[in-house]
Backbone:
């Protein structure tokens, strides 16, 4: 095992971002904007075969390595989809974060959809950028962009340099931390980014299908003492927040107008509801997914649950209307089976049965919320982590590729909220998904991280 002092991660502390998207969305323009035109031109030697061009940049104090994938599609001659996929595949593997651009003026295209669908399956976090949004021209495309399922789009104009502050805000959670708790608090997107005041409260969201009892739960939780606070910095315009304390711990319920808006059975509104859910999820630390005990964990419930986990939030499932359930044991068994089958990637998601209407077991819900919040914030020491890693690789060594065993040199936790780990691997691209899953499950069990999403990044380490 490599000693921490000689670990190669010291040189890798800048954030690597890959700019991706279909042709003509403005990738090169953004690259030049971030890197500075001169450097980009110098790097772009004609006739030289290259996978991509990369250059250092500094944006609002963040050190970046920017990878541009523009123009690479010309190197291949099969379908555009296949070419785009190939050109970006490696860039994304190499990147800490991918910036996916769309052209908000021309709207979301089938190619964007195709690309997004593929990206959603990957591990690299994606920030969706709606480009060409100067002077509001991009607004229709901006709204469409929610459909891509890559989170809330950040409107920018690469050409005019607009929206860069918002881009910085979106990047902050991925910046290798100085490892101070305060810096991390401030860097949390739920807290509104760098300039927002540090909010120590647990930010809670309540989501779920219509009629499961969200409003009832909200009212039961906050009772008469609720404080309604209006729109504020860092939050969406129509968002409100309710603040109170539970067992002396501050808790802040983020809510949106969208949640109270009753959705109709209209295709467009369905999509809107998803966009609303995403927005509220992104503001939260812990998300309570309310499900109806009479219609347990259907397709839509599971979609929302996956969204919460994909966004790296802590999830608690509240099984509401428990007062009218007759077969309680059977219902619980059903929930367990569904979680096992459908959300197997995160074992130990807390499930609380309750009645919002009768105000039963609300304390159990809040206890579960604070417990999972602690896990979500947990940090594992580097020595424990590497001791654990040594045990795991000894029990099951990584496979060999072309006769040479893949070596995992070192592991470290790069951030909490959610727990995110980096592995330095001799051949990161060849490390099978199944092996990464083996490690994630191992970390969860051995290092006590039940029920929260865990991110595992692989990086190249000699
Ligand atoms: P790429 O193929 O994705 O790298 O796209 P380019 O960077 O070459 O840009 C494609 C076209 O979009 C060029 O004509 C750019 O000038 C234009 N473009 C890029 N960014 C913006 C922007 O923010 N606003 C507008 N209106 N046009 C832009
Ligand atoms: P929302 O659309 O998710 O906000 O759901 P509501 O809070 O409006 O509740 C939908 C319906 O379920 C209402 O008729 C509530 O009275 C009912 N309801 C909510 N919680 C419970 C509960 O714990 N038990 C029972 N039996 N009904 C409930």
Residues:
């Amino acid at each position: 095992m490599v000693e921490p002092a000689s670990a190669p991660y010291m040189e890798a502390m800048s954030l690597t971002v890959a700019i991706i998207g279909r042709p003509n969305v403005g990738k090169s323009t953004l690259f030049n904007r971030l890197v500075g035109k001169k450097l980009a031109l110098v790097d772009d030697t004609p006739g030289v075969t290259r996978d991509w061009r990369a250059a250092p940049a500094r944006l609002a104090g963040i050190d970046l390595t920017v990878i541009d994938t523009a123009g690479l599609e010309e190197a291949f001659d099969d379908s555009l989809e296949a070419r785009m996929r190939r050109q970006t595949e490696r860039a994304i593997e190499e990147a800490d974060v991918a910036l996916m651009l769309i052209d908000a003026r021309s709207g979301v295209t089938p190619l964007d959809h195709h690309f997004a669908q593929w990206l959603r399956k990957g591990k690299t976090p994606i920030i969706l950028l709606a480009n060409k949004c100067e002077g509001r021209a991009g607004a229709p495309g901006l709204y469409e962009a929610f459909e891509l399922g890559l989170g809330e789009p950040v409107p920018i104009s690469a050409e005019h340099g607009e929206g860069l502050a918002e881009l910085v805000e979106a990047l902050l959670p991925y910046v290798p931390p100085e490892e101070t708790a305060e810096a991390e608090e401030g860097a949390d997107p739920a807290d509104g980014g760098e300039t927002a005041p540090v909010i120590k409260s647990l930010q809670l969201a309540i989501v779920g299908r219509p009629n499961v009892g969200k409003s009832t739960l909200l009212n039961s939780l906050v009772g008469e003492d609720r404080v309604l606070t209006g729109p504020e910095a860092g939050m969406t315009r129509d968002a409100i927040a309710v603040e109170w304390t539970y067992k002396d711990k501050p808790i802040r319920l983020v809510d949106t107008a969208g949640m109270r808006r009753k959705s109709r059975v209209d295709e467009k509104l369905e999509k809107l509801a998803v966009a609303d859910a995403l927005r509220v999820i992104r503001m939260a630390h812990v998300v309570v997914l309310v499900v109806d005990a009479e219609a347990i964990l259907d397709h839509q419930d599971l979609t929302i649950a996956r969204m919460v986990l994909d966004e790296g939030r802590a999830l608690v499932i509240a099984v509401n209307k428990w007062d009218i359930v007759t077969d309680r044991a059977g219902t619980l068994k059903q929930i367990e089976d569904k979680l096992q089958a459908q959300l197997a990637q995160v074992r130990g998601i807390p499930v609380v049965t309750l009645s919002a209407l009768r105000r039963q077991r609300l304390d159990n819900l809040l206890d579960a919320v604070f417990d999972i919040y602690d896990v979500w914030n947990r940090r594992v020491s580097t020595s424990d982590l590497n001791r654990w890693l040594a045990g795991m690789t000894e029990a099951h060594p990584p496979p060999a590729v072309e006769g040479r065993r893949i070596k995992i040199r070192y592991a470290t936790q790069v951030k909490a909220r959610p727990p995110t780990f980096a592995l330095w691997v001799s051949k990161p691209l060849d490390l099978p998904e199944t092996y990464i899953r083996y490690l994630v499950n191992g970390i969860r069990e051995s290092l006590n991280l039940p029920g929260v999403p865990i991110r595992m990044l692989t990086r190249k380490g000699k």
User: Anything to note?
Assistant: The domain at 382-460 is CATH 3.30.300.20 (GMP Synthetase; Chain A, domain 3).
